[in-house]
Amino acid sequence: xxxxxxxxxxxxxxxxxxxxxxxxxxxxxxxxxxxxxxxxxxxxxxxxxxxxxxxxxxxxxxxxxxxxxxxxxxxxxxxxxxxxxxxxxxxxxxxxxxxxxxxxxxxxxxxxxxxxxxxxxxxxxxxxxxxxxxxxxxxxxxxxxxxxxxxxxxxxxxxxxxxxxxxxxxxxxxxxxxxxxxxxxxxxxxxxxxxxxxxxxxxxxxxxxxxxxxxxxxxxxxxxxxxxxxxxxxxxxxxxxxxxxxxxxxxxxxxxxxxxxxxxxxxxxxxxxxxxxxxxxxxxxxxxxxxxxxxxxxxxxxxxxxxxxxxxxxxxxxxxxxxxxxxxxxxxxxxxxxxxxxxxxxxxxxxxxxxxxxxxxxxxxxxxxxxxxxxxxxxxxxxxxxxxxxxxxxxxxxxxxxxxxxxxxxx
Amino acid sequence: xxxxxxxxxxxxxxxxxxxxxxxxxxxxxxxxxxxxxxxxxxxxxxxxxxxxxxxxxxxxxxxxxxxxxxxxxxxxxxxxxxxxxxxxxxxxxxxxxxxxxxxxxxxxxxxxxxxxxxxxxxxxxxxxxxxxxxxxxxxxxxxxxxxxxxxxxxxxxxxxxxxxxxxxxxxxxxxxxxxxxxxxxxxxxxxxxxxxxxxxxxxxxxxxxxxxxxxxxxxxxxxxxxxxxxxxxxxxxxxxxxxxxxxxxxxxxxxxxxxxxxxxxxxxxxxxxxxxxxxxxxxxxxxxxxxxxxxxxxxxxxxxxxxxxxxxxxxxxxxxx
Lengths: 411, 321
Hints:
A: seven-stranded mixed beta sheet, B: eight-stranded mixed beta sheet, globular
């Protein structure tokens, strides 16, 4: 064997196809193992793919081509002659050469459904295929329960039943509308949100915590910006507090793992960032992960937050930078009206999400006096299948105490 | 009114009634006056030796006489005793007979019936056990049918004798003494109409004659676990494709049981047609249960290679995976 196909990598479980946005090498180039040879974009990330071995490359997927995962985008030969032999195989006018019968030569398909080679081929029964087609349902990624993973009617019907259909109200003729093509990222977010609601027993607790002192504490840190090397934001402070409270009640920092519940010993905080989508008419949500929060100071957390947000806006977050979270933090502070409470939807496999929103001034009874205080609305969503009410109440209490008593940050 | 009649007696009634109904109908075969099989028993006494004709053991001569008579307006029923013997006169019985009508400008009817005992399970081996329906179904111009019950036997033999095309209608020897309801009054079972012998929702099993009995046994055994629809084609040519597709629209899975060889048999034809006409209905590949391509052995080997309830059940379970 002297020529091997180079496949579109599957970078995440939910990844079905990717776009080759840029080749860093050209057909005929000598490449070295580990060399970055192309940039591949998925629903959410741009990824540099590396050469798996030394050799000579022949590119078959053009820049901009959308290719199903595990489908060849190039071939790598040990010599230039290898590639020439391989070239004869793809020449549409030439018959298949007898040499190198081990090479499968599928043409990269924009439509995975049309792919008809063993590489990237989807096994599906005719009936299942028809049902999917009639329903306008893309069955790529549906798990087949038939022999060899063949998708059967029952699999499509189950997937269709699970698909919470968006209200299909036809726009009336006299209402002016703009059609936004559903982007990959929107489709991805939609599926994540729906599967979250489908697969967990989630609900939200809401309360307000007095952050008057915390605001003053943060202000004092801002005044030491030069010393700290970072301008500490409320988000960094809140992230640290969430991490500390999570360590107080470890079960909220756990997740399902097959037959086990995995208790995470570090707090990796998924931090929701909204950025404008390609169309400019809707947004998309990215969730970078700040790792090992429990062992990091506020300045470092701030630096990492800034970096993550910047990367998110530039579309440079990698899959690795968005995976491995153990708990989620989201904030609509400053955007939503004061005192706004939510029921945020759990993210990925996290059991808990802490959501905060815009604080509100309220008259509060403190030491027998009515005083104006700044109250932050907290929306705590948790998977009741994994976490019982009692630990959630303790977690809420820990959060509340830590929000109201900034001194605990250093305790 | 109906009575319980054995399968072979239902055939005899059909022959007798049609001989009364139309004096152009006559029987020709070997030892049919003496009635080796009881479906011709006593007929020579009632209708005389001119209408129940024994010939020497010369299938080509016997068949040539019958086909000439058919061209002259008679309606012969040619009895080959064993289906395997039809091959002795294969060119006349298939090519000449089937294409006569077409080659003569649609002016020359061939109202002729070929019948014979067929089927495995009696340990008779080779040409005493082989099927002929698939072979004749391959040739244009010939209708092919095979009854599975006494009711169907009488009605289908009557329809065959009244038909102006050549009709091959073998009967399965294992069913000979099976009893079933048969009406007193005259009736026919039209050729080309299949029959759902048992309703089901999960898988359609096409089976005929002895294999239909096996399929029904399996369906009963699986009741409550897998809902099996048992489809008796009755006619192979013409075949009731509409009813099969209707059944598949419900079950979406198909097992074809055919007591014939695997290669080029009717099961293969049907499987291809379903793929062509009902591809979108299928939620699993079509499976066939047939003889392997080997001479049908006699003795103890026969049950090991013939289609049987165990193999039918295995195929049903396979398409349900």
